[in-house]
Structures are given as structure tokens and as C-alpha cells.
Amino acid sequence: MLSQNQISSFNRDGYLVVEDFLDKKQRELIINRAQDMIEDFDPATSSSIFTTNEQERASDEYFLKSGDQIRFFFEEKAIDSKGNFTVPKQQSINKIGHAQHALDPVYKRVINSLDIPSMGKQLGIKKPRQLQSMHIFKQPNIGGEVRLHQDSTFLYTTPMSCIGFWMALEDATIENGCLQAMTGGHKLPLKKRFKLAQSGGTEFEVLDESPWPNHQLDLLEVKAGTLVILHGQLPHYSAENTSNKSRQAFSIHLVDSNCHYAEDNWLQSEI
Ligand code: FE2
Fold first, then answer.
1. Annotated domain spans of the chain
2. Rounded CA gap, 28 and 33, in Å?
3. Do the bridges between strand 49-50 and strand 70-75 make them parallel or antiparallel, or are there none, so unpaired?
């Protein structure tokens, strides 16, 4: 459980770093489970490359219907212009998502033991719903950049309620693309929404046209096992991984079931 000081820091900064949250055994269970799942995964069944260009992934059904499935998304640089893999299968995956917390027994056991909904309640969510899982790999040498964004852009409720729980499965450093956050930036308005377009696919709806303030981002270099809790409106970023070490992380996002979940959010889940 979080202390009053930790809750105050979260409210002030828009994020909170909690060291030693996952032990080695829990990290290994998740890392090994993902490795087994990738081993069993047939790349021909996935057409989805997770690109930093949000518009490109927008109309991909494999992505759009992944809210209540366990699916595999490739790194952009894992496949060349001729469609051939540039790396072995185990190093080709950008992320696995988005419902392993509900569907996979190993992920489920570890996640349930962490009692993330109780922390969500401490941070103001009345009726926490574990909505979205992501196992993020940030593969050596090719792990892509994730541009500055707010998570409520993707998981929008009225009023806004999204909180991300990001857990380092491996050390995250400047070299392998650690998180970077705009401290205090959660007080900015939400810039845009990523939503289903009436004509099919997805689109961004701009909610606030003002540019990002010229704040320096703070580097969140953390040890394996550290939890970083991210307010849904906190602008955050991660750079490309140019090192030869992966930077695996697992994240789960909560929303408040007492808030209205937009029918045109990209992620729709029956579970
Ligand atoms: Fe994010």
C-alpha cells in the first residue's frame, strides 16, 4: 500500500517511483512466460507493426480487436522493406497486449498478487477496472521511440480516470530507452483523443491546440523491479533503444468503472 507521502508526491509530480515492487521470481515468471508465448506464436498470423506513427497502426484490425485478446506486435525495424525479418523471432516483438492479465494464468497470478486496484483506490479511483496489459520489450538496437503522449489520449473516460502502472522487468537506463516524464505536466489539459473514426479505422481528435510547454523531461532510470505509476494526463516519452540490451517492462492501466468509458475508444473489451 502507498504512504501518504507517496500519494502526495504522485499528486504533485504526476508520477511516483516505487522501488523493489516486483521481486526477481515475479519478473522471471513474466519474462519466461512471454518467451514461451513468442516461441508458440506464428508470425504469419500477425500483420501488425507497432509504429511510432500512430496514424499508421490506426486501421489495423489485428490491433483494433486486441482489447480482449493476447496479440503480438512487431518492432518497426524488425521487418525490412521486402517483408523479411531482420532479427530472430524472439527479438522481433515490440509488445504483447492487451488482455493477458485476464486471459493468461501466469500473468494473471502475478498481477493479482500485486493488488494494483487497491493502489488505484488510494489514488482516487472509486471502482478500479484493470483494462489494458502491455508487455513492452524495447528490443536491443531496434526498440522504437514512443513519442511524447498522455495515456488518457488512448483510454478516455468522462471524467478522466486512467492511471498507468509501469513495471521494469529489466534495468531501464538512458541507453536502452528508459521512461522520461514531464514532471508536474499532468495538470496540462488533454491534448488529443485517439478514437474510432465513423468511416472506419481511427483518428485523432484534437482537444487542445497549444504546443507542449518547453519543459525538460526528467529521466526515470530505474532498476528492475521498480514500479512507476503514471497519471493519465502526464506527458511521457521513451527514446529508441540504441544499446545491445533489451528494456522489458510490463504495464497495466486502470480506469474507473464509475466514469463513462467512451464507446469510440480504440480499445473495446468484453472482459
Ligand atoms: Fe504511455
1. 4-261
2. 8
3. parallel
Instruction: Tell me how crowded residue 206 is: count the other CB atoms within 10 A of its CB.
Output: 8
Inter-residue long-range contacts of 115-121, CB under 8 Å, 24+ positions, other chains counted: 116/165, 116/252, 116/254, 117/254, 118/1, 119/1, 119/2, 119/165, 119/229, 120/163, 120/254
What is the tens place of the pLDDT at every residue in 47-104? 666 555 554 554 578 888 999 999 998 888 888 877 788 999 999 999 999 999 999 9
Neighbours of ion ligand 1 (CB under 5 A): 151
What are the C-alpha distances in Å from 79 to residues 51, 57, 216, 246? 12, 15, 33, 18
Ligand 1 geometric centre to CA of 223 (Å): 19
Q: What is the mean pLDDT of residues 161-189?
A: 98
Please give the angle made by the CA atoms of 258, 153 and 100, to the nearest 5 degrees. Answer: 70
- What is the C-alpha separation between 133 and 248, in angstroms, rounded? 13
- Give me ligand 1 centre to Cα 109, in Å: 24
Question: What's the pLDDT band for 271 if we cut at 50, 70, 90?
Answer: confident
Are the beta carbons of 132 and 91 closer than 8 angstroms? no
Distance 82 CA to ligand 1 centre (A): 30
| pLDDT tens sequence across 212-227 | 998 899 999 999 999 9
Tell me the CATH number for domain 4-261. Answer: 2.60.120.620
Instruction: Give the pLDDT of residue 85.
Output: 86
